[in-house]
Amino acid sequence: MSLNEKHVNMDIEQSTNPRSALDPHADSAAKFLNEVQEYPPLTPEQEKKLIRKVDWIMIPILFITATLGAVDKVALGTAAINGLRTDTNLVGQ
């Protein structure tokens, strides 16, 4: 037998369903993901609708977060000017 004609004996499991070949030691999340079906690809119309829905939820949250951050910054700056550091014995910045 030449080097090119080597026969390799591999011990592997054969499965007709690629999703059924799950590691028996997998956690519950991996087992759940193995059992659920994947969503079909979105059409451009469905994708546009989904993006619009996410935007309607995320943009107000981001706006409120940015507004509260700005209000907090102004309030701390005003308090520092009016003596917060000396009243509370803060040292450093």
Automatic annotation (TrEMBL):
Region (Disordered): 1-26
Skewed-composition ranges (Basic and acidic residues): 1-10
Name of protein: MFS general substrate transporter
Key words, A-Z: Membrane, Transmembrane, Transmembrane helix
Origin superkingdom: Eukaryota
Membrane-spanning parts: 56-81
